[in-house]
């Protein structure tokens, strides 16, 4: 069952270092979601990443895949626990339209801990994929300078994000 499309004001807007989407194509709560991200050449990070051949930073593409999985899960308190089997296959450059798809792969119905598969494609070709994107419900680090302390506390409790390839 596909949920109705969110109102334009409900779609997270893409920004510098902020994952977002230009259009959400489908949201099947707890099952899957699809969205489009248009990569414009006017983004300031292209001046330094890289001046002669601008490339979308992989971390921003990854953040968009995570944000879409959180949206599909229907729980805004979910955050990254681990990304396993992460692969970047092609560069994403200005002018590309990225089609991101996330699908739940864990049979567990508990949204507080779920596993998703994420794929990003440009012109039908896979540019990035995450085999197992593990999300857990948990506190978000404070933006007031306590972030490092929160990360250390989470690491001590075994909750810090990890990336496995």
Task: Report on the architecture of this protein.
This protein is α+β, with helices and mostly antiparallel strands and 165 residues long. 16% of the residues lie in helices and 35% in strands. The chain has helices at 58-73, 147-156, and strands at 23-28, 32-38, 78-88, 97-104, 113-122, 125-137, 162-164. A seven-stranded mixed sheet has the order 1-2-4-5-6-3-7, covered by helices on one side. It is elongated and about 45 Å long.
Distance between the termini: 33 Å
Kindly name the structural category. alpha+beta
Rg over CA atoms: 16 Å
The biggest sheet, with number of strands, parallel, antiparallel or mixed sense and barrel status, is: 7 strands, mixed
The share of residues in helices is: 10-25%
Following the backbone from N to C, one meets helices and strands in this order, namely EEHEEEEHE
Spatial arrangement of strands, main beta sheet: 1-2-4-5-6-3-7
Please state the overall shape, judged from the principal axes of the Cα atoms.
elongated
Extended strand count: 7
Could you report the average pLDDT, rounded to the nearest whole number? 80
Helical stretch count?
2
Spans of at least 5 consecutive residues whose pLDDT stays below 50 are 1-5, 142-163
Q: DSSP strand (E) fraction?
A: 35-45%
